[in-house]
Amino acid sequence: MLFLLFLCSLGTFLATALVVRYGRAHTHRYGSSVPQRFHAGHVPRLGGIAMLAGCTIGWAWAIASQYWSFPNQIRVAPAMTLSLWLVACLTVAAGVLEDLTQRLTARYRLAVTVGAALLAVWLLHLSVPRLDLFAIDRLWSAGPWLGIALAVVAVSGLPHAFNLIDGYNGLAGTVALVCCFALAYVALQVGDRELAALVLVLAGSTAGFLVWNYPRGLIFAGDGGAYLWGVVIAIVSVMLVMRHEQVSPWFPMLLLIYPVWETMFSIYRKAARGQSPGVADALHFHQLIYRRIVREVFDDDEARRMLMRNNRTSPYLWGFALLTVSPAVMFWNRTGVLVVFTLIFIVAYVWAYTAIIRFKVPAWLRR
Questions:
Q1: At CA 212, angle to CA 37 and CA 11, rounded to 5?
Q2: In this structure, what DSSP letter does residue 294 have?
Q3: Where would I find the H helices in 28-68?
Q4: What is the DSSP string of 173-206?
């Protein structure tokens, strides 16, 4: 497992170095006036290509090593791994095309992720078999299409959720990294080394990318990177619940509630204002943290000043995400506790968002 992490990290590190060196030609197309821009200068948004390269190396090694005399080799099903790679390539391709052209509408990108989700359901036979809620599970078992529909929603929606929180250096990448380790931990607890290996490939690739992304901000994940995180984590989460009855379906829900709820709350917030959910704005939770909690940095260089404030924003959200990851890992097989923590997070999020909007942030948070 450690060798797999190192291999993917090294592969992505080198691939990212090439993108940083030769991938700046497209950066002038990224407008300087868009509301989600919080950096100075032109930075490549092609981290997704580098991470997909690292994942390709890792998954290829996991397949090939089964035919070598390698100690502690990891056995993965070649057909399943290739199916996961194919779905990842399709999703990342749509994100990278948007990163390069800035012309793909939100509807088109959603259509592509839905198509990728349908392909994943077909190739990997994905379904959420239960919710562990007695009143609902009777209906759930009577209609198998409900589980398939939820799997499609999860696999098609989570890439956009990660894209939504990908606003500052290291923010979405670290959240994805922590979620990968959490999924791998639970997979190992139930003896599923195959799923653990698949998600650790993504963890290693993310780590190699983060070396360049945080704190220097030399490259961004872009839509392609966010889509890669979302689609792989969603597929592994569904498969973990499918394969092991002792794993509560609320474990991945609590684990990923930060990007999921950020997306749902943003849709509600924009709909209440009469806006389309696909319209970008600067009122996401991480953007409010940047504007109203992180203190101004005094430096003669404007680019350095923006970079320092950018880097100081992410740790606030890392801590916020860990409040859900920790109980999810601790109580991964106890649905009642997971549901309670999920509701607590939702209430805490709404309270914190409202407090920031109304300028009622506690003084200790601004220090």
A1: 130
A2: S
A3: 47-64
A4: HHHHHHHHHHHHHHHHHTT-HHHHHHHHHHHHHH
d(CA 58, CA 55): 5
Token duo for residue 89: 């390539």
Burial class, 224, CB count within 10 angstroms (exposed 0-12 / middle 13-18 / buried 19+): buried
* Count: domains in the chain: 1
Q: What is the pLDDT of residues 109-158, one digit of tens each?
A: 999 999 999 999 999 999 999 998 887 888 887 778 899 999 999 999 99
Q: Give the distance, in angstroms, between the CA of residue 245 and the centroid of all CA atoms in the same chain.
A: 25
What is the SS3 string spanning 58-99?
HHHHHHHHHHCCCCCCCCCCHHHHHHHHHHHHHHHHHHHHHH
pLDDT tens-digit series, residues 201-235: 999 999 999 999 998 888 999 999 999 999 999 99
pLDDT in tens, 6-16: 999 999 999 99
302-330 and 171-189 helices, crossing angle to 10°: 20
Segment 162-186 mean pLDDT: 93
DSSP symbol at 282: S
**Taking a C-beta distance cutoff of 8 angstroms, is the pair 242, 208 a contact?**
no
Q: How far does the chain reach from its first CA to its final CA, in angstroms?
A: 40
Comparing CA positions, the residue from 60, 47, 52, 48 lying closest to residue 4 is: 60
The token duo for 243 is 């394969």
Q: What b/e readout covers 174-207, taking b as 16+ CB neighbours within 10 angstroms?
A: bbbbbbbbbbbebbeebebbbbbbbbbbbbbbbb
The boundaries of the domain holding residue 32 are: 2-366
